[in-house]
Specification:
Blueprint (H helix, E strand, L loop, with lengths): L3 E2 L7 E4 L8 E2 L2 E2 L9 E3 L8 E4 L2 E6 L8 E2 L4 E2 L24 E6 L5 E2 L3 E6 L5 H9 L3 H4 L7 E5 L12 H15 L3 E8 L7 H8 L7 E5 H4 L2 H20 L4 E4 L4 E6 L10 H14 L3 E4 L9 H5 L5 H20 L10 H5 L5 H8 L8 E5 L9 E5 L5 H10 L4 E6 L12 E5 L2 H6 L6 E2 L2 H4 L4 H16 L5 H4 L17
Parallel strand pairs: 12-13, 12-14, 14-15, 17-18, 17-21, 18-20, 19-20, 21-22, 22-23
Antiparallel strand pairs: 1-2, 2-5, 3-4, 5-8, 6-7, 7-9, 10-11, 10-16
Helix pairs in contact: 1-6, 3-12, 7-15
Length: about 500
């Protein structure tokens, strides 16, 4: 394997593919010290305050004079907001429609939408009903569910908010969208919604606001009305017992890939994320879009500094402006909370070679492939457009994926370089490793090794096709490694916005 990777001729840094000793030759210069694997090396002298370029884009500015061959990282690379002249709809590359539909075995619901799993969800309006919800779900052991082979499980989706919050505004509306989105996700065949009774997030308000219709497969109750925890749990268990035969009637039938909506997510990123796994997922997204399916990119702080690439791909100026409005909201949100958009890279990200949010974002945006951006949505807002879309969310993975599932995603594709342990329900999550070393070390958790791109054993397109093929297999019921280990019961984390009062 070559000792370094140059991503574009205009870059003034290259990336070490393995740990390099001082004095290693790099494009006519020699390294001035030890360079960790995945970290950047100046391929030419960079003057103080000059732009540092990777991916043919600015990733920061030299905090001091940097000599050729030097390690470029947090000690000498500074974040600075980049002034950008945005273009709209200038880089549109529609993908040719597939000649024949790819198929999977899915659950077609009465609404016409198609699920990849068949769960019963116990949703809570407030933290005060979380214990009761968990007790209800825990009553349905594998032995108890054995008579219902078409039911994937009973899952409690509990959270830590729902009261002590404003009764209007961003936070209230986001939580409503999450609850409604999980209730209507096509991977959910039946819903029991449990509250306390006096909370700010009233179940009746949600039903009225979103036009939900209670019935055999959508039940609600409050602890206070039921007379306490024990009676609530008993009533909830009885309600789900009555649902089980009805939910079990659902069967898998052949469905086209156009019915899939996939959450595109990354966590525990490293320098290889934007070089191997994320571009491969982007190719898989292009294949899905060619089928008429939908990919949903998220994590707004992790496209910061790369948003100009997405506005140029926006199908219309209005779509691009909507994305920029979300960016400006985040700039204000971080400023009023005393933060910075550059706070996003974690210590693990930096150990893996990433330095600024600009660098991280340029790699993260690659998950969206190359096709036009067809829609931009608020957190947990239903995604209605087909093709490549974007949903606003934090970069915190559980909160982001929660929003994507609420928006309608029925599969999750999660890339990781450091080795994130994550899984989701009701939409199963697969893991794509950015490097082969971590893949081998965490092989029980990783589904795809994109590190083969770095070694030359496979191309981005080949790994992308393998990822897309696994999407179809997962959609037909094949468990991912995180799903097989039972992850997903504790990863439901609605984004809490606003003051707790």
């Amino acid at each position: 394997m070559h000792p370094f990777v140059r991503l574009d001729p205009s870059d003034n840094v290259v990336t070490a593919t393995r740990a390099l000793e001082a004095g290693t030759g790099i494009e006519g210069v020699r390294t001035t010290g030890l360079i960790p694997s995945g970290h950047k090396i100046a391929s030419a002298p960079i003057a103080k305050d000059a732009a540092v370029r990777k991916y043919a884009q600015i990733i920061g500015y030299a905090a001091e004079d940097i000599q050729a061959g030097a390690h470029v990282h947090s000690h000498n690379l500074a974040f600075r907001n980049v002034d950008t002249d945005y273009e709209f709809a200038t880089n549109l590359r529609p993908v040719a429609a597939a000649s024949a539909p790819d198929m999977f075995e899915g659950y077609r619901r009465a609404s016409g939408r198609v699920g990849t799993r068949n769960y019963i969800a116990v949703l809570t309006s407030v933290n005060c009903s979380a214990t009761a919800a968990r007790m209800i779900a825990q009553a349905f052991t594998p032995d108890r569910l054995a008579a219902y082979p078409n039911v994937d499980g009973v899952v409690a989706f509990v959270h830590g908010t729902g009261c002590g919050m404003a009764g209007s505004g961003d936070g209230f509306e986001a939580l409503q969208r999450v609850m409604w989105g999980y209730a209507r996700n096509p991977n959910v065949g039946g819903v029991l919604m449990a509250g306390l009774g006096c909370e700010m997030m009233q179940i009746d308000w949600l039903i009225e606001a979103y036009g939900l219709t209670p019935g055999p497969l959508f039940q609600t109750m409050n602890i206070q009305d039921r007379g306490g925890i024990r009676k609530t749990v008993e009533a909830g268990v009885a309600m789900i017992d009555a649902m089980l035969p009805l939910v079990n009637e659902a069967t898998r039938t052949p469905c086209p890939a156009s019915e899939l909506t996939v959450a595109l997510q990354c966590g525990g990123s490293d320098a290889w994320s934007g070089i191997t796994a994320n571009p491969a997922v982007g190719h898989a997204c292009d294949l899905l879009v060619a089928q008429g399916g939908t990919g949903v990119l998220a994590e707004t702080p992790e496209i910061y500094g790369a948003e100009h690439l997405l506005t140029a791909r926006a199908a219309t100026r209005e779509i691009g402006e909507t994305l920029l409005e979300r960016i400006r909201w985040w700039e204000d949100y971080t400023a009023r909370n005393g933060g910075s958009m550059d706070n996003n890279p974690s210590p693990g990200n930096k150990a893996g070679g990433l330095t600024t949010i600009l660098e991280k974002s340029l790699g993260a945006a690659a998950k969206g492939g190359t096709t036009p951006l067809t829609g931009v949505y608020k957190y947990a807002e239903p995604v209605t457009a087909r093709g490549f879309t974007f949903m606003d969310s934090p970069g915190y993975d559980p909160a982001s994926v929660t929003g994507q599932i609420a928006s309608g995603c029925t599969l999750v594709c999660f890339t990781t370089g450091r080795g994130s342990a994550f899984g989701a329900k009701p939409s199963p999550s697969m893991k794509v490793a950015t490097n082969s070393e971590m893949y081998g070390r965490m092989i029980e958790d990783m589904d795809i090794d994109a590190g083969t791109i770095l070694t030359g054993a496979a191309s981005v397109e080949q790994v992308g096709r393998a990822i897309y093929a696994m999407w179809l297999d997962m959609a037909s019921g094949k468990p991912s490694k995180s799903e097989a280990q039972g992850l997903g019961d504790y990863e439901f984390v609605p984004w809490q916005i606003g003051a707790v009062m």
